[in-house]
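From the shared-data thread, chain only:
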Amino acid sequence: MGYEYGIWLVYDKEEFPTTHIGHITITCYMEKEDAISLYDELFEIYGKHHEVYVECKTPLKFDINMYENDDNESYSWGYEGHLLENGMMTDIWSNIAKISKKYKCDFSHTPHTSIFYSHVKQALQPRKMDDNKVVKCSMEVVDITSDNPVDWHVIELSNKFI
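Structure, as tokens:
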């Protein structure tokens, strides 16, 4: 089942060691067409490229089933983050939340990246980093239908060149 379709802020894999695509979740549990429509709307307002301040000094364990429609029984650990605009923390995330309410989806109320997923809570080994960091991301529509995070992938949208 996975997390159906969604929208992520995808970062370069070199930023954090993951076996899956490194990302900050915006939405999940969407129909593909709705994900593309929401992406188009967000793209028109905010563009494709973003920076996220990631709190690497404070790793967190995320509970299973953290989204309303989540029944994956999967634990994860990672870091929280804050969307930046011109290098400053802004309220963009709450604006994105308002826009996403037009669509059937689970919105990630706390921007975060999951570094590792497991069905066994004891397998989580959060790693504190010495410094927080700013990561450059691109907004993408994603297929997260697989139960295996390694199989998740970005859906190429031919009409987006920026």
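The domain at 4-155 is CATH 3.90.1140.10 (Cyclic Phosphodiesterase; Chain: A,).
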